[in-house]
Design goal:
The complex is a heterodimer of chains A (about 220) and B (about 170).
Chain A lengths: L8 H16 L9 H18 L5 H28 L6 H11 L5 H10 L3 H35 L65
Chain B lengths: L2 H29 L4 H9 L12 E2 L2 E2 L4 H18 L9 H20 L6 H23 L28
Helix pairs in contact in B: 1-2, 1-3, 1-5, 3-5, 4-5
Classes of the chains: A mainly alpha (about 220), B mainly alpha (about 170).
Chain lengths: ~220, ~170
């Protein structure tokens, strides 16, 4: 399905890292979740340009999800770093205060942390970062997928004009005429779906002019 | 029910659950302010600007998402649910994305011209429209990530190329 995965590396990195930076710059972050979706959209565009082929919806969703994962990883890592140096969320001290307010950690967990030599404040921080990372993954993953699927639709190459050697299917609906590969329809409305060969990401026909089918090329 | 339909429903369920988790995650910091819940969840939505005057409130405490983002994630949950219930959309069409995003675009443009239209419910509603379409579209797209391989010369009407499922009776 992911036929272009050899082209993913750079676009996904760009589509993940750039929105992460934009989300962290105070004035620019007013763009909100738009940056994540835009990053995925750009990544899809880059993959398509590299592959020279149409990106289908499922692949767009995967590229978008990968971008979302990178954004989640970068923002969580950056947030953790800020907390450790004490400038984000009020630092580790704030986490410790909240834990105190809540009556401290459960005794078993506290004992385990003491055994491991981790102070309670940093435990709260670590706990918070893990929970935040899970939420981040869902949040950015969803927005990334929206951008990826949207990008696959928006940057889908236009189908070449029908003409020349194309043969319309004869029958109405599913079409009873011999369709077969490489016999695109001139007028899809006459015979159900457009036949393969003339539609990117299209609907290549099965033998017998029937619509649907699988495993066909996009062009 | 064909395999594609089943896949869309499974993907829709996943999207709906993710949307519900995000909605709950955005609301919890307003229910439990000044606790570890807020400390953990508010930074988790750092992708949103979280400006208090542009966010929904509960008893004076702001949600972790702004109106528009809250509308979008609520819409994603709704779109996933609609996909589970069998809504069929074609996310491969450009115009459908333009149509879904146009309420947000029009509202953003309009609020610069007529500031009185910058209303909280409009921000939520426009986000909800886009989110609903996007949630259903992502469900359809995800359903095609691992398409079934049709047997040679076999069943028809199963789309495996990433377009919307158009099941037909052969």
């Amino acid at each position: 399905m992911m036929k272009n995965k050899q082209h993913y590396a750079l676009p996904v990195l760009v589509g993940g890292v750039v929105p992460s930076i934009l989300c962290m710059i105070p004035c620019v972050s007013i763009g909100c979740c738009l940056w994540v979706a835009l990053g995925a959209l750009v990544a899809v565009m880059m993959v398509q340009k590299k592959a020279g082929d149409a990106i289908d919806m499922g692949e767009g969703a995967v590229i978008g999800a990968l971008c979302g994962i990178i954004v989640a990883a970068v923002t969580t890592g950056f947030g953790l770093l800020l907390n450790l140096i004490g400038v984000g969320l009020g630092g580790a001290g704030a986490a410790a205060t909240v834990i105190q307010q809540m009556g401290g950690l459960p005794p078993d967990l506290r004992r385990a942390l003491e055994d491991a030599g981790i102070p309670q404040a940093y435990a709260g921080l670590l706990l918070g970062s893990c929970a935040g990372c899970c939420m981040n993954l869902i949040f950015y993953g969803i927005f990334g997928m929206i951008g990826g699927v949207g990008g696959a639709a928006i940057f889908k190459p236009k189908p070449p004009p029908a003409g020349g050697a194309m043969t319309p299917p004869q029958g109405p609906g599913g079409g009873q005429a011999p369709g077969g590969w490489g016999q695109p329809a001139q007028s899809p409305q006459q015979g159900g779906y457009p036949q393969g060969g003339g539609q990117p990401g299209g609907w290549p026909p099965q033998g017998g002019g029937q619509p649907g089918g699988g495993g066909g090329q996009s062009w | 029910m064909g395999l594609t339909s089943r896949n869309v429903r499974i993907a829709g369920l996943g999207i709906a659950l993710a949307g519900v988790v995000l909605v709950v995650g955005a609301v919890l910091p307003a229910i439990y302010p000044d606790t570890l819940v807020e400390l953990v969840l508010r930074p988790a939505f750092r992708g949103c600007h979280q400006l208090a005057d542009r966010s929904p409130h509960l008893e004076g405490h702001a949600f972790a998402l702004c109106h528009r983002c809250f509308g979008i994630v609520a819409g994603v949950a709704l779109g996933g649910l609609l996909a589970v219930l069998g809504l069929k959309i074609d996310p491969s069409r450009r115009w459908s994305w333009v149509a879904a995003a146009s309420p947000i675009a029009v509202h953003v443009a309009l609020r610069w011209i007529v500031p009185a239209t910058d209303l909280a419910w409009l921000r939520v509603a426009t986000g909800l429209v886009f989110g609903t379409f996007a949630g259903a579209a992502v469900a359809v797209a995800l359903a095609h990530v691992h398409p079934p391989t049709p047997p040679s010369g076999g069943r028809v009407g199963r789309n495996v190329r990433g377009l919307a499922p158009r099941e037909t009776s052969s």
